[in-house]
Design brief:
This protein has 370 residues and is α/β, with parallel strands linked by helices. Helix content is 43%, strand content 15%.
Length: 370
């Protein structure tokens, strides 16, 4: 065994993972050079070698759960990634022009593909599993929880920043009698939502969020802040602030990191969400500072593990329909994406926060619903 593989085996042992073992979370090397690329490029090398079929693992979710829980990611700091980190820290990778890249690369994969993976409303954010038995129930429970946190009433006008396929907007209109305007940078999402909900008081705009400047009773953003980037956090809050009426509420639903990191994971950045960035708690707080009063902060990150596993089950079941179109390399890429993220949330390496914000603070205070 080469020295690099011996060292890799030693590190994995700290997480209870064996190189060449037979347990579901153990990994098997199919080609040489995996260890060298991992130590040179970190998760970028780990993900790319998996996509190439150079190694396998029956339970990638549990592999990453154990790896991250043991903190092994902090023991591999490849020098080759310094440039990636410097670019993320110094440059605005989410400019008006670059912001559209994630829509083209990720969200415009095709509505049929996402329809096979997601719930019937096409909700591409964390579900709320407190009393839910399946994905559809968990997503509707999450949407209803948000409506109640926002204290929606009939006739209100709501802005959804990063509206996706309109799951929140449609639910809020149907169950709470509100009107909604949603903005997204995905052509596929916009076309699907306009066709799906012609009879509801919903307006779907193919538009950058920075262009919105009109008053709303409520503002909501679900799973979009991860695409904003630290250079634009305060700009994002400025948009929400100028659009929210004085007595309104703003709910921000975002994945969060336990510590500030420069840019996103390089593999996720290259293959899944270009130019994305997961905020740390203090980064959101700093962006809010001087603009909003924090009425409530709710962490339901553990629910994302179960959501991602449900998405993976749907994706895996539907894969025969897409194999010829997308190919086996895509399958391994998407499997790595869904299951590595599930493992990260299971290890509590990632969080999911719901912030409820007001412009001036609600008189008498705010009581959280659950």
């Amino acid at each position: 065994m080469p020295a690099s593989e011996r060292y890799m085996a030693e590190l994995l042992t700290e997480a209870g993972i064996r190189l060449g073992g037979h347990r579901p979370w153990d990994i098997r090397l199919n080609k040489p050079g995996v260890a060298e690329r991992v130590f040179a490029r970190g998760n970028l090398g780990l993900g790319e070698t998996y996509m190439e079929g150079a190694w396998d693992c029956d339970r990638l979710d549990e592999f990453f759960h154990r790896l991250l829980r043991a903190g092994l990611q902090h023991k591999v700091r490849p020098a080759r990634l310094i440039l990636h980190m410097l670019k993320a820290r110094l440059f605005n990778r989410q400019t008006d022009r670059r912001a559209w890249q994630v829509g083209e690369q990720h969200y415009d994969l095709g509505n049929e593909f996402y329809g096979a993976m997601l719930d019937p409303r096409m909700t591409y954010t964390c579900g709320y599993w407190r009393e839910a038995d399946n994905l559809a129930e968990a997503q509707e429970a999450k949407l209803d929880l948000i409506c109640r946190k926002l204290r929606l009433e009939p006739g209100m006008r709501v802005l959804d920043i990063g509206c996706g396929w309109g799951s929140f907007m449609s639910y809020a209109a149907e169950h709470y009698g509100v009107e909604c305007v949603g903005v997204t940078i995905s052509e596929e999402q916009t076309a699907w939502a306009r066709e799906r909900y012609p009879g509801l008081p919903l307006e779907f705009r193919l538009q950058d969020y920075r262009e919105v400047d009109e008053p709303f009773d409520r503002v909501v953003s679900l799973g979009m802040f991860e695409h904003v980037g630290h250079k634009n956090y305060r700009t994002f809050m400025d948009v929400a602030h100028r659009c929210l009426k004085d007595d309104g509420l703003f709910l921000l639903h975002t994945i969060g990191s336990n510590e500030r990191s420069p840019g996103s994971d390089p593999w996720i950045d290259k293959y899944i969400f270009p130019n994305g960035e997961i905020p740390a708690l203090h980064q959101v707080s700093e962006a809010v500072d001087g603009r909003f009063v924090v009425e409530d902060l709710h962490n339901c990150g553990a629910d994302y593990d179960r959501t991602l596993m449900a998405w993976y089950e749907n994706f895996n079941h539907a894969w025969p329909r897409f194999r010829e179109q997308l190919g086996d390399r895509f399958y391994r890429m998407w499997r790595y994406y869904l299951l590595s993220c599930a493992g990260a949330f299971r290890a509590r390496d990632l969080q999911l926060w719901q912030w409820v914000l007001s412009r001036k603070g609600l008189e008498g205070g705010y009581r959280r619903v659950s």
